[in-house]
Design goal:
mainly alpha
């Protein structure tokens, strides 16, 4: 892995978002490259500093009212989202059942009428043979 590739992946590496294989490639590169290792430490310090600045700033804190309103809205939307999923599943089951019954009826009617025609044909042939005798 080249430095350019490793540096593109450093933020994802810090956030633990990489695949295992890619993570191992980055670790191997960092073990042999002091410049990329220094870049990684700089990015970690920057993230830590930003996190601390946000946590110390009163203006950037989430208002308790906002958090409770958001929680209530998410709970309400999750409850209403469950119903359509079940309705859609039941509709899909009913449609599949209707399709199977319809196809089965068609197949049975076709086979029954064909069997009836063959039986009638056999009967007519038998009676014709008897008359000829």
């Amino acid at each position: 892995m080249q430095c350019r590739d490793a540096r593109e992946l450093l933020d994802s590496f810090i956030g633990e978002e990489l695949l295992v294989e890619t993570n191992h490639d980055v670790l191997r590169h960092l073990a042999t490259c002091p410049e990329c290792s220094a870049e990684l430490e700089n990015r970690r310090r920057l993230r830590t500093g930003l996190r601390q600045a946000f946590s110390r700033s009163a203006d950037l804190q989430v208002r308790p009212e906002f958090a409770s309103e958001l929680t209530a809205q998410l709970r309400a939307s999750s409850r209403s989202a469950v119903r359509p999923v079940w309705q859609a599943r039941w509709f899909a089951i009913a449609a599949s059942l209707l399709l199977v019954v319809g196809a089965g009826t068609y197949v049975l009617r076709t086979r029954i009428s064909e069997a009836t025609r063959l039986a009638a044909g056999d009967h007519q042939i038998t009676q014709g043979s008897v008359r000829a005798l």
